[in-house]
Amino acid sequence: MDDLYSLIRAIQFNFDSINKYWQISENYMPLNMKKKRVEDVYKDESLLLYILNYRKFINDNISEVLDIIQKLKLKSVINTRVKAYNSIQYKIQNYVNNHEHGKIPLKKCLNDIFGLRIILDMPLSYSEIKKFIDKEFPQLKCIESARGKYYAVHVYFGNDDNYKFQWELQIWNKNQEKINLDSHAKYKQDYTKWEKENI
Hints:
globular, 6 helices, 5-stranded mixed sheet, alpha+beta
């Protein structure tokens, strides 16, 4: 659990720090993402612009986060990514088409504009991770994510504040890595097909 503890502490520190600067930036606006719904993005162009401005802000400031994580010298494999512009569009459209016609809080859809993944060598069950998170980081949301053959535990930063975009940490066990990567590849095929048809 040492790697997981150190990583989560570093993410929380960076999440708080970056959001502090975001909230005083010229592009910030107090948007309640629990009240705004996914479908609203198609009704109000300023919403998509706001989302993309946040994505750019993360991209511009992400090197500091990566430096801090690298300095932790963790044994586990860590990956990070900022969601691509086209991928954000795809996710929004997918929610409108397949999830209650987009009548879902924006917060639930756009919870991974910045995402991280840790691959643990020592397998941990969901209950073990949940118990650990609840004890050490009670402000974070921890869920079991199983879709098809994909299996992971997802932890969300900022879930307790409706005015902040959440960050997502995926926790994978090493023995699940290949299956999860295959599942991601299948999702990527669907996204690539959509991209060719729509862009």
